[in-house]
Amino acid sequence: MHDLKPQDSAALLRDLRAGREIRSVETMIVDCPTTRRHRLSNTEINHQSYVILRVVLADGAVGWGEAATLGGPRWAEESVEAIKANIDAYLAPPLIGRCALDFEANAALTAKAASRNNAARGALEAALFDAAGKSLGLPASLLLGGAVREKIEVLWALASGDADQEIEEAKAKLAAREHRRFKIKLGFHPPAEDMARLTKIVEALPGCEIVCDVNQGWSEATAIRYLPRLAELGIVLIEQPLRPGLTEATARIAARSAIPIMTDEAAFSGPEIVAAATAAAGSVYSLKLVKSGGLLELKRAAGIAQACGMELYGGCLLETGIGAAAHLAVFSTLPRLEWGCEHFGPKILKTDLTNGEILFKDFHIHAPQGPGLGVTIDEEALRAARRKG
Ligand SMILES: [Mg+2]
Hints:
The chain contains 15 helices and 13 strands. By secondary structure, it is an alpha/beta fold. The chain has two domains: 21-137, Enolase-like, domain 1 (2-Layer Sandwich), CATH 3.30.390.10; 143-377, Enolase-like C-terminal domain (TIM Barrel, Alpha-Beta Barrel).
């Protein structure tokens, strides 16, 4: 096997590709209730809606993918209804009959079939990595360069808006040794009220690292006024304080802030990451599949942000175990991931759609180790969550 002739190698490749053609792509909308309400500056949810994809290869291997949204087309422009329609009509048809292993060529085809539609394209590529990995008996992380870590320190978001409830929730997470770092969502109360809530939480959780996410809810003036208070409270990171597009204003507050600014909604594409970094509007970048539009692009986004000197944070959009596993497949291969990740989505759902392969233990999320994305589907939970009609 060590001295393969070119013709032997070509035969091996032919064998590898045989049976790995994409036979079908099925999409379904699911609505999963959450354990508590989750508030952002511009929306509030008590259930999460996703598009779940089921890809079948010619050899019978099945792959699953997921597109997440947050409260309809608000966090970004895609809704589950639009995602399903665009996958069915535009993204899936050109892939039928193609080899699932041609990841880059398939991604180029879907990018040509629809502009942006990042959540939809990301879900499709996740399902292809899952199907190909399951067919080969290899983890998707190996197909993405190989894992450099099996577990990642994982943060929990506090976002009900009620400080007493949030303190109780955080203490339960600490006691269970699941989370010791927390993200507090700001921007849905007037800032002074948010400061009182935040002060109460910080004082009740000594020794815990706290990140704040404003989800674009502040103006430059509000940020100038309140960032010193956040610094006094020991907040370690502030995420997306202003609207995307306010790059210069964000750079001005970053210049006077003692806390690093994390870029989330302001940068989806590579050029947007470069623009945020070169304007000095953010020194940490939040990685999300729904922003990058695929696992390969997510990995490239990490490289671009890093090349611009930004540190990396693994973000999430409250995915089920399927979407969390897709992120972990990429995150586990990144040489550096300075800020750890979130990916608590499976824990905020009353019922996750996977069979518990993703473990939360000793303040870390453990990447599942099986073939493909490493998770299996709880078919009963999927049937129950599937939207009727
Ligand atoms: Mg965010």
